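[Automated response] Your request has been received and processed.

Submitted sequence:
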Amino acid sequence: MAAALFSFFEKINAFLWNGPVIVILSAAHLFFTFKLLPQRHTFRAIRLSVAPDKDAPKKGLSGFATLATTLAATLGTGNIVGVSTAIALGGPGALFWCFLTGLFGMATTYAECFLSCMYRKRNPDGTSVGGPMYVLEHGLKSKFMGKFYALCVVCAAIGAGCTTQSSAIADAAYSTWKLSPHIIGIAAAVLTGMVILGGVKSIGSFCTRLVPPLSFLYMGACVFLMWMNRDFLLPSLQLVLSSAFTGRATGGGFVGSTFLVAARFGIARGLFTNEAGIGTAAITAGASGTEAPEKQALISMTAVFWDTIVMCTLTGFTIISSMLAHPGSAAGYTDAGLTSAAFAFLPLGGNAFLTLSLIAFALATLVGWCYLGEKGVAYLFGETGVHSYHLVYIVMIYIGAVIPMNLVWGFTDLINAIMVFPNALCLFILFKRIKKPICR
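Generated structure:
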């Protein structure tokens, strides 16, 4: 049964990711970059994300809290397992396409977050909610499309945000310490449940306390490994650029692949980790207390910068430079194994450090994605359905830890592809309502 489902997902994903989704995402990323060019405001956006927001109301998340929650939902297995998988299946050139997805995707994230803030709904208690479902309903006047997108968000939360992360946690814990997936699944479910049952403020507090220090610690380890392999950094860059277009790479244990395969896995994993074009960042942006749509859109845009341009690139070059520096060290590895092979050369228990980092990132992603799915449930069924959703989500954390990983990734790629269509349609139709960032 699992094999049949995996084959089914593979056939559909091969069609979607080798054509329609890549075309739509490329068109959106290039169009909004050319029309808005918010990337030139990246450093200003970073300053805004950490500066106190004196104009924000007391209700709602701060700009930094929305960024931390967005990063919690995106930083995780995509930066470790996703990049490793992309390189294993698509070759080193996949990293180039992953990088471009982040660079141009910043403009798409700005656009979707701007519209989310414009069409967000104010609750009686002073908080706000937003996201593509509200844009579809009030901007495009389509309640049906809003419900369809909200349903996709719930499915994505249970798939991409839930089972993918718990499966990665269980796999990492078993590989390093031989711990039972059942025990890990139960532990992850309990820990996540303790946070999400505390509400939005608990989620925001958890994310702001965990994500920043964890990210800098992981980036520091990558930089240290690249320094150890510094003689191979230039050859790594040359290999990435050459194989991005030829699709072939020889030496160092890499397997040649076609140009389309490199582009497919690079873009697919890039989208999985930064979610630019899916619209999930817009859901968190809509909950912000920041009044100006332009300001919050810039803050939310930096999530793509940190997630893909910085984190994924560091992970990718750590893997590739290590494989070139130590030929044959990653032979036979797939998925997260390439990252594990690279971190094995980190002094004082590199694999244990990587496992702990992956587990911590994945727990943050479990919390962040639970919040996104919660907003989809609230849109569909009201607040009365949230408690039932929490219970289902917690149970699915355990189930994700014990089901095959390849089946989880197949479902994740499929649901991500489906979510692109209504969100991209909305962005193109309502483009004229999006304002360019103003130089200040």
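Summary generated for your ticket: The beta strands are 121-122, 128-129. Confidence is low (pLDDT under 50) at residues 249-256.
If you did not submit this request, please reply to this message.
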